Amino acid sequence: MKPMGHCTATEAEGAIRRGELTSEAYTAACLARIAAIEGTVGAWAFLDPERALDEARAADAARGAGKPLGPLHGLPVGVKDIIDTADMPTENGTPLHAGRRPTEDAAVVASLRRAGAVILGKTVTTELAVYSPGKTRNPRNPGHSPGGSSSGSAAAVAAGMAPLAVGSQTNGSVIRPAAYCGVVGYKPTYGCISRHGMLRQSPPLDQVGLFADTLEDAALLAEPLMAFDPRDPAMRPGGRRELLEALRQDLPTRPRLGFVRSPYWEQAAPDAQSALAALAGRLGGAVEEVQLPPPFSEAASIHRTIMEADFAVSFAAEYARGADRLSPMLRTMIEGGQKTTAADYRQALSRSAGLKANLDALLAPFDGWITPATTGEAPAGLASTGSPIFCTTWTLCGVPAVTVPLLTGATGLPIGVQVVGRAGQDSRLLRVARWLEETLGRPDCPLAV
To answer: What does the radius of gyration of the chain's CA atoms come to, in whole angstroms?
Structure first.
């Protein structure tokens, strides 16, 4: 069973605010759940239970003293171990950074603290947030991958160890593990959440993402993190995004949806193809099939050129100091990036900009597009974190994406349905995803732990 009867984060926040539940009790329940199943799931890179309980007690004391309460007051949150925390190690999933202790919080952690959250601990990441798996297993079936690179964050939420968690996505590192583990994964529009203090992989692609059990919980977590930070050059000043309020409003009319197979449809497993096609059929006139123009078939190669060239720069020190301690796959990617010319890199960025403009025009008539989140169910075994191919185009173009566990595959494991929208239209996207979930319902996909 999950902590505190598995109330949602939004329900717990309200109960804490009203004095019906203490943060200490809620945090203690999460820690008890971790103690019971962490040996099987392996979602955590660092935990200090007493420190977490101290934070929870301080949150309860603040409420008792009548102090202002933030939107996440007293809620435990897991933080991916590539995001700096001043009071915990941040080792980035590599032995080359073992014992690393940052001196200040990343911007997103500082925002969590200002919002009143309890930082429960650091969640497992793959090696330098790339492909080589960590120790985490899928709580739906521990014999299967949880995905990556935000493997621990997705598994922690799915298993009921934490109601909320933060991760990152440079290709498919939020949407993919959320889909495999059967939770909501939300990657906001590029530049919505500061990346200051987070491991740098590829500045044109790196984005913060979030994990939750429900869309409402994802909006609750995201909203206080969307504060302008001039230290991140991707951010632009703008008004506060009222995600939660917008999500709770009904759509005035039935949304107009597109069904996008994408140029990579043949890489999806047969059960995923049939399930997605059947879902589109159930929606009837609410959805129409959209064919992406030929240039989008080049999205994966454009993304790879940018990402590998940036890896060569971002991980230059690690490669120089200990290339033999990096995984063969990451070494290959870095070495590929070292061979990328400046002209090729600039051309890839230019082609990416062209795709973004084209995509915005294609999305304009729609409230959102339905598309696969992954190639299918989580892969068996722990050797691979699965393919991110159905996330690549949307990450490259910086548009918001959310996955909701609306389908199951041939063996009963979850298959996420990804919804993407226009850049900057995050509130609209979440409302569309909510309509889709209410219309179709979630299938039962029990935990194995």
So the answer is: 20
Nearest to 8 by CA among 228, 216, 302, 282: 216
Would you say residue 199 lies in a domain?
Answer: yes
User: Residue 68: inside a domain, yes or no?
Assistant: yes
Q: What is the pLDDT of residue 412?
A: 97
pLDDT in tens, 115-170: 999 999 999 999 999 999 999 999 999 999 999 999 999 999 999 999 999 999 99
Cβ-contact 261, 297 below 8 angstroms: no
Number of domains comprising the chain: 1
Residue type, 313: V
Which structural domain range is residue 46 located in?
Answer: 1-291+357-449
Whole-number Å distance between alpha carbons of 326 and 39: 26
Q: Let me know if residue 343 belongs to a domain.
A: no
- Contacts by 344-350, CB closer than 8 A, 24 or more apart: 344/305, 344/309, 345/305, 345/306, 345/309, 348/302, 348/305, 348/306, 348/309, 349/204, 349/306
Q: What is the CATH number of the domain that holds 442?
A: 3.90.1300.10
User: What single string gives the DSSP state of each residue in 428-446?
Assistant: HHHHHHHHHHHHH-PPP--
Altogether, the residues listed in the chain come to a count of 449
CA 41/CA 158 separation, integer angstroms: 10
Q: Which residues are catalytic?
A: 80, 149, 173
pLDDT confidence bin for 239, thresholds 50/70/90 = low
pLDDT, average across residues 358-381: 98
* 177, containing H or E segment: helix 175-181
